[in-house]
Amino acid sequence: MGAIAPAAAIVASTPLQAALSADEQATLDVVTAAEAEGGAAAQVAAIMGSSLSGSQKALAVQWLIEGASTDEQAGALAAAVIAAAEAAAAAGQTGTVATLGTGLGQAYKALNGDGRASAASVVMTAVEKRDLR
After folding, report:
1. Cys staple from 7: which of 31, 59, 66, 102, with CB 3.0 to 4.6 Å?
2. Close Cβ partners of 67 (under 8 Å, ≥ 6 residues apart)
3. For 21-30, how does the pLDDT look when each residue is reduced to its tens digit (9 = 90+)?
4. b vs e for 23-55, b when ≥16 Cβ sit within 10 Å of the residue's Cβ?
5. Beta strand extents in 8-124 (DSSP E only)
6. What is the pLDDT of residues 62-100, one digit of tens each?
7. CB–CB of 56/26 below 8 Å?
8. CA distances (Å), 38 to each of 16, 86, 108, 121, in order?
């Protein structure tokens, strides 16, 4: 898993852990499996290649980025999400672009809300580098 905190740790830190829906548990399972992949791009690809619904994939992207244990890892994951969105846009896959963008935006919002402003800043910097605002 490298520098990524297991997604289960993110979810376990919330009071809702015991109340995960079946969809949320499936999402968590995909994120946990994706975290075992070798790099950020492979982790994002594992999520996007899964059988999850679009909204579940967005949540999975969010949890993956939230699980980054360093600002640098959050930035690498954000860059991988952006690259995947750009590839999807080039292929005309607007639903995939929306899913990735939603997950990235929610991760940014969650990082800010969790007191991880420096990680959120790194995510926003990745967005600004691609002028995606």
Report:
1. 31
2. 4, 5, 6, 7, 9, 10, 31, 35
3. 889 999 999 9
4. ebebbbebbbebbebeebbebbebbbebebeee
5. none
6. 999 999 989 999 999 999 999 999 999 999 999 999 999
7. yes
8. 30, 21, 23, 24
